[in-house]
Structure formats: structure tokens, C-alpha cells
Amino acid sequence: MGIGSTFLGLLEGGPRHGYDLKRAYDERFGADRPLSYGQVYATLARLLKNGLVEVDGVEPGAGPERKRYAITDAGVTDVEQWLSEPEKPEPYLQSVLYSKVVLALLTGRSATELLDAQSSEHLRLMRELTARKRGGDIADQLICDHALFHLEADLRWLELTAARLDALAGEVAA
């Protein structure tokens, strides 16, 4: 998710300070990975430079002056374009898991143990997300479902790779 585009969407509701944008972002999108203030103000500086936001007001504070940012017409157009374009699906053709399996085979280590350990880690995380989903609001449920579906696909791949491990070992050895 583009932080800048997300900020623009949040600013469509009205002008906000950087602190308010960070709080809104973290509440809705960054529960597991909150933004740093450095990211917030670097993103706002870039949006300002590109003419997508403007400073709507400046208020004195105990520290530096507090700027309030508002979206410009160009910013609204940018959000509309961003929301209307489908995201490119990620084919995952460069997988760290695949690399680890091949390297385990190449170096004489147990690829089976690696696959078993990875499956256990996936299952652990799936249990954690399922518990979070049960106690969460609709936003939490949807984001957990998204992650769970990806983890399920990874698990299917791990099982398929385990079933084909002898064939892969033969190719790697050749």
C-alpha cells in the first residue's frame, strides 16, 4: 500500500496535522507495523513538493510549528487514479522458501526438516491470526483472512514440495 496515496485518501475527509495522519493510518492500516514519524513527515514533504497537498495552516506549539495539510485538486485526482487501477498480482516467482529448499539440498542438509519447521511456523501464525480474527472487528477479520489465505497457499506449496522432494533432489544433484 502506498503510504502517500493512503494519506491523500485520509486527507479527503479534511485537513489534518501529521500527527493526526499517523494516528489514523496506524489505527486503520498499521496496527502491526505503525509508521515512524520520519516516514510521516518525509511522505508529507514529498506530497507537498509534488503539489498533491498544501499547507492549510500553521499553529504554534511547544516545539516546532504544527502544520495542517490539505489535499489539492491534483491530490484528489491522484487518489481517484490510484483507487481505480488494479494492483499487479505478485507471482512470487522468487521465493525465499524455494531458495532455502534448493540450498539445503545442495549443501547436504535436510530439506525435509526445513519444510517441516516452516510448516510448523506457518501453522503457529495461522492459529494466532485465527484467534485475533475471532476477537476483532470487521477490519481485523478481513485483514486476518487475507493473511490466512496467503498462509494456506504457502502451506499447500510446502506440502507439494515435500511430495516432490526426491524429484527436486535429483535435478539439483544433476
Automatic annotation (TrEMBL):
- What InterPro entries does the record tag this protein with? Tscrpt_reg_PadR_N, WH-like_DNA-bd_sf, WH_DNA-bd_sf
Q: Quote any Pfam family the record assigns.
A: PadR
Tell me the ranges covered by the Transcription regulator PadR N-terminal domain, including all copies: 8-78
**Stored PANTHER family:** NEGATIVE TRANSCRIPTION REGULATOR PADR, TRANSCRIPTIONAL REGULATOR YQJI
The molecule here is called PadR family transcriptional regulator
**Organism expressing this protein natively:** Solirubrobacter ginsenosidimutans
